[in-house]
Specification:
By secondary structure, the chain is an alpha/beta fold. It has 2 domains: 245 residues, Rossmann fold (3-Layer(aba) Sandwich); 105 residues, Sandwich (Immunoglobulin-like). It contains 14 helices and 14 strands. The strands form 4 sheets. A 5-stranded parallel beta sheet has the order 4-3-5-6-7, with helices on both faces. Strands 11-10-13-14 form a 4-stranded antiparallel beta sheet. The protein has a 3-stranded antiparallel beta sheet with strand order 8-9-12, with no helix packed on it. β8 and β9 form a beta hairpin. α4 crosses α13 and α5 runs parallel beside α9.
């Protein structure tokens, strides 16, 4: 009898001791440890997105869009600060100044400008180009990393509609919309059709415990990231288990709603037809049938409503995807240049912008740099027929920050330009009768550089092209 009691006693101690230990630990943590704020963003993708894209601290929970940009947050890479209105760009009054053209650009991380300083994004470049021509213009960047067209529409209604934009640029469907859903699509979640399961409610209760919060602060991100990667891998291998974040039918309906919103405001809508990097990581050309289906929806709506479009597939086909994209999804700095200039052309063609005036102050097309088969660089500057005979100057530079790689033999900008102009007087001259100039560069001293930049000036003023980067 005593042996049985002793066995039961030991079992009771073994069961109760961990609970007592956890109780003491919980008490100590509540007295002496301030738990870090670990917001639940109501969407597992957002809990890992900051880690995936290097944007930790940029987001806050949002009841309507699941997450949003946190006002006052500093971009971890570009260092610019999110405005009080939760947008990227300069702080500006909401009231539109008289005579000002206001443009809103909506989208995901491609519009936001992942790993780009704000002045390098296509929205800010468009603004700068129009200002150089004397236009009074404001471009408001409504891009938020990870957003789908559902989130973008809600975001527009909540934060941008009251700004009374004259032009709205829609850049959706590049990735997030046909990404794998987690439990339910965006629209179902946003409309409250998805209720937390018993397991999720239990986990939410556990997260109130300090000891669980301590564990989550140390290991939570890693565990969530592994779970998210596993779900994405399943999606890449076939149809996702829970469908898409925005199924094709929802995407079509939401796009129509978005365009109706613009029409109701009297704003001109411009549709960007997205593209992905078909030569990502030097693989065989990749085909994205999911992307094609979403592109077809956007294209059909634009044709139906007579809206201007910017087709990135057609545009980027003229260049090298390795230079126009920085990864599978996001356009590079050069890609943003091409997008900004083409967007301006489409806006003028559609009548949303007045026709360009004096060609001497209009923005130059990007300076092109093409690697020849023998390794030399062919630089081509195109100013257009109106600039025939205009003088030009091409400068070169090498930077340790280009592509995140340091040159093997660093050369400062003055040294690079001196070498170029010592060997190639043709880097200064006049544009030919067609308004163009072409120079072949083959400089042995520069072969050790992993990244070279070239920029051109036309005339004696400050009319400079954006730099084009090449890897010799």
């Amino acid at each position: 009898m005593s042996a049985r009691k002793s066995w039961k006693g030991r079992l009771a101690v073994a069961l109760v001791s961990p609970l007592v230990l956890l109780f003491v630990l919980e008490l100590v943590l509540r007295l002496f440890w301030a738990a870090p704020e670990v917001p639940t963003l109501r969407f597992r993708f957002a809990n890992t997105m900051d880690q995936e894209l290097g944007l930790e601290g940029l987001f806050q929970p949002d009841e309507k869009t699941f997450w949003s940009l946190r006002p006052g947050a500093r971009h971890p890479e570009a260092k610019d600060v999110i405005t009080s209105g939760g947008l990227r760009g300069p702080e500006r009054p909401a009231a539109k100044p008289p005579g000002t053209l206001r443009i809103a650009v909506l989208g995901d991380s491609c519009t936001f400008g992942i790993r780009l300083a704000d002045p390098k994004t296509f929205g800010r470049r468009l603004e700068a180009s129009l200002e150089r021509e004397g236009a009074r213009v404001e471009v408001w960047n409504g891009g938020v990393p990870g957003f789908t067209i559902y989130q973008g529409l809600v975001h527009f209604r909540e934060r941008l509609r009251t700004l009374q934009p004259d032009v709205v640029v829609l850049y959706f469907g590049a990735w997030n919309d046909f990404n794998a859903a987690f439990g339910a699509g965006d629209r179902e979640r946003g409309q409250g059709a998805v209720q937390p399961s018993a397991t999720e409610r239990a986990l939410a209760g556990l997260m109130e415990l300090r000891c669980v919060q301590l564990f989550a602060s140390r290991y939570g991100k890693t565990l969530r990231y592994r779970h998210w990667r596993r779900r994405v891998d399943e999606w890449l291998a076939g149809e996702p288990q829970d469908g898409y974040r925005v199924p094709l039918e929802d995407f079509s309906e939401l796009a129509r709603e978005f365009l109706d919103e613009c029409e109701g405001l009297g704003a001109k809508a411009v549709v960007v037809l997205p593209e992905l990097n078909s030569t990502w990581k030097d693989k065989e050309p990749i085909h994205f049938p999911r992307l094609d289906r979403y592109r077809e929806v956007l294209s059909a709506l634009a044709v139906e409503r007579g809206l201007p479009t910017v087709d990135l597939r057609a545009l980027f086909a003229e260049g090298d995807h390795a230079e126009l994209f920085r990864d599978l999804v996001h356009p590079s700095a050069r890609g943003h240049v091409w997008l900004a200039l083409t967007l301006e052309e489409e806006l003028r063609r559609s009548g949303a912008l007045p026709a360009s005036g004096d060609p001497d102050v209009s923005a130059l097309r990007p300076l092109a740099a093409v690697r020849e088969a023998d390794g030399r660089l062919r630089l081509r500057l195109e100013g257009g027929p109106d600039r025939a005979g205009a003088s030009f100057l091409i400068l070169g530079s090498a930077t340790p920050n280009a592509f995140g790689l340091a040159p093997e033999r660093p050369l400062d900008e003055d040294r690079v330009s001196a070498l170029l102009h010592e060997r190639y007087p043709a880097l200064t001259g006049e544009l030919d009768a067609s308004g163009a100039a072409e120079v072949i560069v083959d400089l042995p001293e520069l072969k050790g550089q992993r990244a070279l930049g070239f920029t051109a000036r036309l005339g004696a003023g400050e009319d400079w092209t954006d730099a084009v980067w090449v890897t010799p």
